[in-house]
Amino acid sequence: MNREMEAVAENPARSRGFKYASINPNKPQPPPIPKPNQFPSHFDAPNVSSTARALCDILTRASPHDIETALSSSGIVPEEDLVEEVLKLSYNYPSSAVKFFRWAGRGKKHPAHAWNLMVDLLGKNQLFEPMWDAVRSMKQEEKLSLSTFASVFQSYSAAGRFNEAVMSFDVMDRYGVKQDVVAVNSLLSAVCSEDNQTSVGVEFLERIKVKVSPDSDTFAILLEGWQREGNGAKAKITFGDMVAQIGWDKGNVAAYDAFLMTLFCADLMDDVVRYLQLMKDHDCFPGLKFFTNALDTLVKRNDAHHAVPMWDVMVSGELLPNLIMYNAMIGLLCNNVAIDHAIRLLDEMPFHGAFPDSLTYNMIFECLVKNKKPRETERFFAEMIKNEWPPTGPNCAAAIAMLFDCDDPEAAHEIWNYVVENHVKPLDESANAMLVGLCNLSRFAEVNRLAEDVLYKRIKVYESTMTLLKDAFYREGRSARDRYDSLYRKWKALVVQL
Predict the structure, then answer these.
(1) Distances (CA, A) of 327 to 236, 322, 355
(2) Residue 144: domain span
(3) Structural domain contains residue 18
(4) Which residues touch 417 (CB under 8 Å, ≥6 apart)?
(5) Weakly modelled stretches of the chain, pLDDT under 50
(6) Each residue of 272-299: pLDDT tens digit?
């Protein structure tokens, strides 16, 4: 324990008070870690009142010896709200802030929140001796609270002085502030928010839990610390300790979220699924945020193997997936050719208050087409039309081509008729798919009629399609060749116009 903390422990209420102590500008001070202008000031903060700006100008421009005189000459009355505003803008100028605080407190006592700001300002600048002077003065005025010590914990932790943060907790009861679980959690939050210091928090908890019983927030803080560090192995130990000490708590969503995300980010997917099932068995679930983030990542990985059981746990609880999540899951299932499962999800959407849109239907339709399911494609097309979510133009063209390949020209004609009647763009893709399909079936009369109609409607026929038609028509003899030549002249004229 250093000299400063020894003095605090031996006589926490010693008579030396902050109001009579100051930061001596002539005495060398340990250089603080914060860089100049690290904190907001009146130069860059928005919505600064004119009186606060005037006082801040004095604090930053007047010489140290003239500050209090300049403040008194300003004619400004330091009301409580004004003092608080100026202190919040003075973190970059701690010596001047002390002088301002002393001046503003002449003839009256500062409220607790102003004292807490002063403690925080000094601590954030690593001026710990003056900070403790302020704490002792607050004790004398009976204005100390857990908020004060929470600021002390944060300042020591931000400075990397974790032992002093813990020792501050050890002496807080001598200042009349209770060492309860809220205080424990305040210290853990300060320590574990710093990089790679969760082990310090765990060590502290092991020592203090004999005196103060941890609660769900305690373990949530530790698990969030392990999440930041990405330590899945330590997270599993802490999670086991949590269940052993406080049991399963349905409301402890933050802890479950942090724990599962730690495992997830460590790529321990089998553990994620196993612990999810364990939580479900105890009627405990993580929040929707976990499922949203995890599902997004699994979709990017195309990992349906782990996404499906995770999804099943989610929908079995009280969490309702939204349309975006449904579309992501259906897209993943379609990419893995789990078409029946995708259609089951589509059917259950209305029961969870999520209604399918064009993307939902078109993903499934595209999957049916790509995997050459003509009967299913035909039935699903009818359902899409019925529900007023028709296929996109490219999907219609792909479906027409697939149906011809699978010897179902009647279904292809049905889709083509819908495309024409409803002007589903781009028309040319579907038109060319129809021409190629009919040509491959040697239905030259139909090809000729359709081509004439398409060209008349100024729908683009691809050069590759015309080449295919030429080869097929020329093989049929003189009459067919003449029909093609006539089509070609009309096509060429249209190409020139377009």
Answers:
(1) 32, 9, 10
(2) 1-159
(3) yes
(4) none
(5) 1-36
(6) 999 999 999 999 999 998 999 999 999 9
